[in-house]
Amino acid sequence: MKSIDIEISEVGPRDGLQSIAPIMPTAAKKAWISALAAAGIPEIEVGSFVPASVLPQLADTAELVTHARQIDGLAVAVLVPNLRGALDALTVGAHKLTIPLSVSETHSLKNLRRTHEQVLADVAAIRTAIDALPRQQRPRLEGSLSTAFGCTLEGAVPERKVYEMAQKLVAAGCDEVGLSDTTGFASPAQVRNYSRGIWALLGRERLNGIHLHNTRGQGLANVMAALEAGLTTIDASMGGIGGCPFAPGASGNIVTEDLVFLLESQGLRTGINFELLFAARRVLAAALPGVELYGFTPQAGLPKDFVAATAQ
Ligand code: ZN
Fold first, then answer.
1. For residue 181, how far is its CA from the centre of ligand 1 (angstroms)?
2. Residues known to be catalytic
3. How do residues 233-285 score in pLDDT, each as one tens digit?
4. Distance (Å) from CA 304 to ligand 1 centroid
């Protein structure tokens, strides 16, 4: 029996914290990650293995992986920009590695300072490093198709380019790919079409998740399209913090609290407890004084007599 219908991957500790100026103390991050996990969040992207000189906000990622791995049942995900970052992630034993490949090559050069060919060469090298580990220690490797729906630098990104890059990422050794609306350009029609397009090309098991931003207010509409299409993992960030420091104008992720309400209110189990989720939000708010947290559901509260699907 399945206890979860849709898996929420909380990316606030990575996507959220990398985009705001204040650096959250490591102890506060650990407390927040523990609170998120206690609320039932099944997967947390705890950080990114980028040089501290680039993103000092995430300099403690290795320590956070070690902390999060001690939490029973939690899948610990990290972003890795390149082979070096991936080797660091393997050393501390992250369960899932996500390497972004910007379908827009201009964004790729600016964001990762790498061409497509260089990213794909890194994917192949990471695959080799993973396969050298004993089977039970091998993390999943996901290639994230950044700027799949459009780019602030290049503008429209051709659909065929998304498929070409998805195919190349899997050929280079990714277990799966993820669709990522880095810049908040996506429409529900694109979300449906691209999901089906990738499945037709690579098979159903090669795409499960989507990463959405609410830049133009379309985040939850795009979630509905993703659900209709059949995607089962949705990224979100608590309080909607986040963005992309290298995609000007790309603001916050979709809000975890509102996403949980959207899912639970239509009978889809997330495994998440609202009281504990709101408690985790208070932990975050206390750790980031002066940073605005978004979200309608935490402000309005749950409707009278609301019973979450997970609680039934
Ligand atoms: Zn993002």
1. 7
2. 244
3. 999 999 998 755 555 554 689 999 999 999 999 999 999 999 999 999 999 99
4. 33
The kind and range of the H/E element at 180 are: strand 176-180
What is the 1 CA–ligand 1 centroid distance (Å)?
32
> What are the φ and ψ backbone dihedral angles of 241, each rounded to 5 degrees?
-70, 155
CA-based nearest residue to 202, from 238, 240, 165 = 165
- What percentage of the chain carries pLDDT values higher than 70? 96
0.90 exceeded by the pTM?
yes
Q: What does DSSP assign to residue 13?
A: I
Domain range 7-311, CATH architecture: Alpha-Beta Barrel (3.20)
Residue 76 CB neighbour total at 10 angstroms: 26
CB contact at 8 A, 212 and 219: yes
* Cα(211) to centroid(ligand 1), Å: 7
Q: Name residues of the chain where pLDDT drops below 50.
A: 1, 250
Q: With contact defined as beta carbons under 8 Å apart, do 276 and 238 qualify?
A: no
